[in-house]
Amino acid sequence: MPEPINSLLSLAGRVVIVTAGATVAVTDILKTPGKEFISCQAESPGRLSYYSCDVTNQALLAQAFEAKFRDLKRVDGIITAAGICIDKPFLKHTWEDVQRQQAVNETGTFFAVQHAVRYMKEHGIKGSVVMICSQTAQHVSPGHQLTGYAGSKGFVLSFARNLAHELAPDGIRVNTISPGYIATTMNLSIAARRPGLNRIFNEAPPMSRVGTPDDLKGAALYLLGDGSSYVTGLDLVVDGGMGVSSGNFKSSL
């Protein structure tokens, strides 16, 4: 009998690590979680835990994952979402700018995934790795100057595809999600300094609106759950159609 669609999209009983129905371990550089996390934790007692960690620090990253494995006793999936974005002309990028982005977006992602995958292989878990990539890995983002950031997300895209091939015999799937313009704290803070970006966020996507974090939930659930059990090496684009038309939008910024 085919599995019911609800079971294919369910994460009940699974443990998922998120760097920023499953038991979720969230990792973020902040010493204490924000109000949104605390609110979600109150709504789901016992199913949401927080670990403070700087993903650019090798020792602290290892300690954080050791604590998660000890506390949760299982890992079925990981979503790497930690990232920083520096928006400035290419010639104004400094050595420190590029190194900071690479440390978080590339090195932090690489070794967070390595910790999770090592655990999965040691325990025979056929898990799922989901990395948050970006539309900038595929095309330009009108109104932005993101050469360093785009390069770091290009790394994520290539890394994921190579890892998907390597881990396929172990039954561990590796996929990416490439968001377009999403109303995250990071993007809204950039727009606060450059108000003209709000127009681009809502006019450049063919769907004529900026995305919200909720628009990414279905993609994450799909790639983490059994509904995508035969999917690996995929970049799932959630961008309101930007991928087919971004070159047609002329920014005045």
UniProtKB/TrEMBL annotation:
UniProt keyword terms in alphabetical order: Oxidoreductase
Domain of life: Eukaryota
Pfam families membership: adh_short_C2
Stated family: Belongs to the short-chain dehydrogenases/reductases (SDR) family.
Full protein name: Short-chain dehydrogenase
Species assigned in the record: Aspergillus keveii
